[in-house]
Predict the 3D structure of the following.
Amino acid sequence: MKTNLNVFLASNTTEASIDFKIKGSWFDKSLTIYNGNTDTPIAQMNMKVTASYTFTVTVRPNVDYAFVVAIILILDAINREGVGME
Protein backbone atom coordinates (compact mmCIF):
# COMPACT_ATOMS: atom_id res chain seq x y z
CA MET A 1 0.00 0.00 0.00
CA LYS A 2 1.27 3.42 -0.93
CA THR A 3 0.79 6.49 1.21
CA ASN A 4 -0.21 9.67 -0.60
CA LEU A 5 -1.35 12.40 1.76
CA ASN A 6 -1.95 16.10 1.23
CA VAL A 7 -1.28 18.31 4.25
CA PHE A 8 -2.99 21.67 4.72
CA LEU A 9 -1.89 24.03 7.49
CA ALA A 10 -4.57 25.65 9.67
CA SER A 11 -3.96 29.04 8.05
CA ASN A 12 -4.78 27.56 4.62
CA THR A 13 -8.55 27.64 5.15
CA THR A 14 -9.43 27.60 1.44
CA GLU A 15 -7.22 24.57 0.76
CA ALA A 16 -6.59 26.07 -2.68
CA SER A 17 -3.03 24.79 -2.65
CA ILE A 18 -1.30 21.96 -0.83
CA ASP A 19 1.16 23.01 1.90
CA PHE A 20 2.94 19.63 2.04
CA LYS A 21 2.50 16.21 0.50
CA ILE A 22 3.65 12.87 1.80
CA LYS A 23 4.50 9.96 -0.47
CA GLY A 24 5.85 6.52 0.24
CA SER A 25 4.79 3.37 1.97
CA TRP A 26 4.53 2.82 5.69
CA PHE A 27 4.77 -0.92 5.07
CA ASP A 28 7.98 -0.44 3.05
CA LYS A 29 9.14 1.73 5.96
CA SER A 30 10.00 4.76 3.82
CA LEU A 31 8.30 8.15 3.39
CA THR A 32 9.23 11.42 1.73
CA ILE A 33 7.69 14.77 2.65
CA TYR A 34 7.52 17.34 -0.16
CA ASN A 35 7.10 21.11 -0.08
CA GLY A 36 3.68 22.00 -1.47
CA ASN A 37 2.64 20.47 -4.74
CA THR A 38 6.24 20.22 -5.97
CA ASP A 39 8.79 17.46 -6.29
CA THR A 40 11.11 19.23 -3.85
CA PRO A 41 11.70 16.91 -0.89
CA ILE A 42 12.08 18.55 2.51
CA ALA A 43 12.44 15.37 4.56
CA GLN A 44 12.94 11.62 4.18
CA MET A 45 12.10 8.96 6.76
CA ASN A 46 13.25 5.36 6.91
CA MET A 47 12.21 2.97 9.64
CA LYS A 48 13.94 -0.16 10.88
CA VAL A 49 11.97 -2.62 12.97
CA THR A 50 13.86 -4.97 15.27
CA ALA A 51 13.02 -5.41 18.93
CA SER A 52 12.04 -1.73 18.78
CA TYR A 53 11.33 0.89 16.13
CA THR A 54 14.26 2.97 14.88
CA PHE A 55 13.55 5.99 12.71
CA THR A 56 16.15 7.69 10.53
CA VAL A 57 14.99 11.13 9.47
CA THR A 58 16.85 13.44 7.11
CA VAL A 59 15.58 17.02 7.09
CA ARG A 60 16.72 19.74 4.70
CA PRO A 61 18.20 22.95 6.14
CA ASN A 62 15.73 25.68 7.17
CA VAL A 63 12.89 23.18 7.63
CA ASP A 64 11.12 22.92 10.99
CA TYR A 65 12.31 19.50 12.12
CA ALA A 66 9.77 19.43 14.96
CA PHE A 67 6.98 19.67 12.37
CA VAL A 68 8.50 16.79 10.38
CA VAL A 69 8.85 14.63 13.50
CA ALA A 70 5.26 15.44 14.50
CA ILE A 71 3.98 14.22 11.11
CA ILE A 72 5.97 11.00 11.42
CA LEU A 73 4.74 10.36 14.97
CA ILE A 74 1.12 10.94 13.92
CA LEU A 75 1.50 8.47 11.04
CA ASP A 76 3.15 5.96 13.38
CA ALA A 77 0.30 6.27 15.90
CA ILE A 78 -2.31 5.79 13.17
CA ASN A 79 -0.58 2.71 11.81
CA ARG A 80 0.01 1.12 15.21
CA GLU A 81 -3.74 1.34 15.83
CA GLY A 82 -4.29 -0.63 12.65
CA VAL A 83 -5.96 2.20 10.73
CA GLY A 84 -4.86 1.87 7.11
CA MET A 85 -3.76 4.90 5.11
CA GLU A 86 -4.67 4.46 1.50
The radius of gyration is 13 Å. DSSP finds one helix and five strands in the chain. The mean pLDDT is 86.
